[in-house]
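Standup notes
- DV: blocked on the single-chain target, sequence here:
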Amino acid sequence: MQVLLDKDFRLSGRDTQTNIKLNFTIEEAFNFLQINFTYSPGQSSDQVAQDQVKEAILKYSLTQGARDRTRLEDFLPVDNFITLSLAKDGHYLGGYHNKSKDQKILISREDASLGFWPVDHLSGQWEAQLNCHCIASKALSASLRIEGHHEA
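- DV (later): unblocked, structure below
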């Protein structure tokens, strides 16, 4: 096993609707990649989440009456939502849009985890992208570790 990428992130509400691109190169003939992606917390009711809900209520309530009847508490907690997508040699390999905050993704020549395509060979130029759909927390910790494995 060889660690190809090991990175920790500290994210906040400012990172909502942004993408974090991480490039890495694989030169060895690995049998498969194992990608571990985690983040915490999964949900938030803090001030960032409350401000996001208030903004959405103002933006999407068509009348003042609808706004007056809407209770902030009915929309809390808000889910933090980050997905991972992959590309190799400029070709999109997929992404798995789910709310799991602990993800394990496997990619090989024969098979791949749900949402991803297998590849002919693992060597090449890779891009992992964290898609920060919603960060509703003052502070969110995330970790991405990509390993190349020789054993089957």
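- Follow-up: The first helix runs from residue 47 to 60.
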